[in-house]
Amino acid sequence: MTEEQKTAEFEERIGRDEKIEPGDWMPEKYRKQLIRMISQHAHSEVIGMLPEGKWIPHAPSLRRKMILIAKVQDEAGHGQYLYHAAETLGVTREELYQAFLDGRAKYSSIFNYPSLSWADVGMIGWLVDGAAIKNQTMLAQCSYGPYSRAMVRICAEETFHHKQGKEMVLKYAAGTAKQRDMVQDALNRYWWPSLMMLGPHDSESTNTPQLVKWGVKTKTNDEVRQEFIAETAPELIASGLTIPDPDLHQDEDGVWHHGPIDWDEFWNVVKGNGPCNAERLGMRQDAHDNGQWVRDALEAYSEKKYGAAAFA
Amino acid sequence: MARWEVFKKDNARKPYQAVGSVHAVDPEHALHNAKNVFVRRPAAVSLWVAPAAAIFSRSAEELENQPLDPTANGHEQRYLVFRKASNRRSMTFMDHIGETSAPNGESALAQAIDQFDDKPGLAWWVIPAEAITASEEDVAEAWFAPAATKTYKQQSQYGFVSKLREGRKGAVTSDE
Ligand SMILES: [Fe+2]
Ligand SMILES: [Fe+2]
After folding, report:
1. B22 touches chain A (CB under 8 A)
2. Does the ipTM exceed 0.90?
3. B53 is in which domain, residue-wise?
4. Which CATH architecture has domain A3-275?
5. A160 vs B154: CB contact, 8 Å cut-off?
6. Nearest C-alpha neighbor of B101 from the set B130, B138, B122
């Protein structure tokens, strides 16, 4: 069979809603795009622990502390689900992680913004996890079996992240003047980055048509962003908070329109020049280096018990 | 570090299901990682781990393009059989459906496909029983019960969180 025939058969399988599984033939470009997407997604989960993890010691109650610890643990787990999904495509977690530490791999721009107050934890849960869920719910339909399964598992847990954040923001929005100021400030800083994290406009997104054709994505960036605004904006407005976009409005058909997004800022952050890029990667590198003795000890213990390379 | 596939049994009536993988240096380490990665929420009563290298794996497409060639090479042993039978939306890959005895993985799979013909398999794994390590019975309570008490991790505990519709239930507890 020629490459074209194989590709045609592959596309027919996707047309029949079959899942592509490890061992199945796939176009090289499909494999490459999936490795890129899944690993960027994994790195985002891992780096996503940092802005919120920093607030664990400062949680205002035991309940909030337990919630935040559980959420950060979940993000670590999500990173693992995803690295392992990527590994089914013939790469290793180690090489993907090294590319991340070296700054060769990308991750979601949103995690390079600082978390400046406790209210950011609530706003991140509502907006950032909320935007992520929109994407992830779509990716749960993905044609590649391992990615779709990881997404289904992640979505079930993300819903908790979203709800605890929204609960916190609604409570503070209805709270004291100081609490209201704190969440308004968080909204002012997180609204635009949350819209940006859903990716460039469709007109700028060169990969999208192919990804939609191959069932990797089922919606475009703008479609997902539109859904996110339609779901979130009315709730934010009802809570009494002000969305920092004077152009945001709903037309007579109920469609939301937002003001222009500052894509220069987005690309600047993606390219590594955001407020926290260096700090975030530095912390991951430290954690990796400081964990070396644990990995060494595990290897030594296993070698003593089972012999050298018993499970390699 | 080797990769291990993880199988989780949710309750007495459910089969062990392939939930994903972990990296670990040995079976004990793999089980601990499996617990932390896959049992942060209910429910589980038992885990299995198996080194990925011990698994004989074929998708339906591979079987079609390259028929199995069973031989008598190897020593007869028990193989556990796992199958994916549906393309439905799911967070698990394969179910444990039974076992067979064969001298090697390829022969074990050929037999399994004959033996378990109630549904067509979309993907198959056969794993030597001796390569699988189960979580200890006497740690089951300590390992798996606490997840059920951590109700703040359950999205259902938050009810319907919204300012838009009145008459919402559950939602907000006051602690701040
Ligand atoms: Fe996550
Ligand atoms: Fe999350």
Report:
1. yes
2. yes
3. 2-174
4. Up-down Bundle (1.20)
5. yes
6. B130
